[in-house]
Write a structure and sequence with these properties.
mainly beta; four-stranded antiparallel sheet; 1 helix; globular
């Protein structure tokens, strides 16, 4: 059974850092593209960052220079390192897998515009940035 499990969320003060983890079971993450998405109350789900099977990456403008996506194939895990957090980063964060071969330019377009094209989703982890 294919499953994604997020962890690492929590409450942090503005300017702080968190590292989210997305652990996969039932399939090997390094063959597929993985995305991190977030959804704040009353807002649409937003693509934050995606990493292709070749480990190329993209980021939404609002997190560039602050967030870093990476993968550890040995641990079958993808991470999202979040630094310089802001209150507007508060949301439930989800990871998702796109389990078909896809060119990076198309992947990054889906990441930003069509998150629900991704095939498998985790349950989400809450990130709250507040003083």
């Amino acid at each position: 059974q294919l499953q994604l499990v997020e962890s690492g969320g929590g409450l942090v003060q503005p300017g702080g850092s968190l590292r989210l983890s997305c652990a996969a079971s039932g399939f090997t993450l390094d063959y597929y593209a993985i995305g991190w998405f977030r959804q704040a109350p009353g807002k649409e789900r937003e693509g934050v960052s995606c990493i292709g099977s070749s480990s190329s990456t993209n980021y939404v403008d609002s997190v560039k220079g602050r967030f870093t996506i990476s993968r550890d194939n040995a641990k079958n895990t993808v991470y999202l390192q979040m630094n310089s957090l802001k209150p507007e980063d508060t949301a439930v964060y989800y990871c998702a897998a796109y389990t078909e071969s896809i060119p990076d330019p198309i992947l990054f377009r889906l990441c930003q515009r069509s998150p629900y094209e991704f095939h498998y989703w985790g349950q989400g982890t809450q990130v709250t940035v507040s003083s």
